[in-house]
Amino acid sequence: ELPNVKHSADAVAIRIPDDDGGDSDSTTTDITYGKLKELVEATATILSESAGLGAGGVPGDVVSIVFPNEVSFVLSFLAVPYTRSVSAPLNQNYTREEYKFYMEDNESKLVLVPEAGGGVPEAEMAAEELGLPVYAVGWNEKDGVSVKHKSGPKTIARSSSSESPADEVGGNGDGGQEKKKAKLTFEPRPSDVALFLHTSGTTAKPKGVPLAHSNLVASMNNISRTYRLTPDDAVLLIMPLFHVHGLM
């Protein structure tokens, strides 16, 4: 089983400085571990019910995630592997052709973009050319998480033998009668691929690097030991989250 990190549900997991131009009296917005868990589970459930992510216990769907550093990136990145699917973060400054290359190479089934700021047009155009569903994910302190279909098909393409998401998670049948809803349960395993990255491509064509949950846990343990991090420490993030050093 995957190890559980013991934290109080009321402990702060993410602290977001308010954009105040560097005022020393600035305030922050805090997200506790309990709230983060709630938001991630809500995001995963919506993606499963609406887009069919992980529906029917099908593991391994790759999801291209294209966001700046913001809370909705964190929620998307954590929610995807929670459904036994694979997060594939991409640089938000790629060109359409670069997005097409990476989405085809990692065999993306779904693309997630930010709700705020008009999304990421180049990534959305690439997804449209590849026939991929695009969903926008947003978050604010008042309303919580928002996940909405933006363009392309509404659900992940499956083989004809696969059940439709509506059959598994509910929906309106003939005559407006609601079908029985199956309980959504997600049980990620240590061997499941959780993250898909590409090499930089400095000396050759970029190559895909799949990383399992167990790989990520080992990396985080090594980083914690190296920097002697404790639950009382706060870490300032300045790296882009699409990069492995920002994620870890």
TrEMBL record:
Protein name in UniProt: AMP-dependent synthetase/ligase domain-containing protein
Family of the protein in this entry: Belongs to the ATP-dependent AMP-binding enzyme family.
GO molecular function: medium-chain fatty acid-CoA ligase activity
Pfam families for this protein: AMP-binding (PF00501)
Residue ranges of domain AMP-dependent synthetase/ligase in the record: 26-247
Organism: Odontella aurita
InterPro entries listed in its UniProt record: AMP-dep_synth/lig_dom, ANL_N_sf
Keywords tagged on the record: Ligase
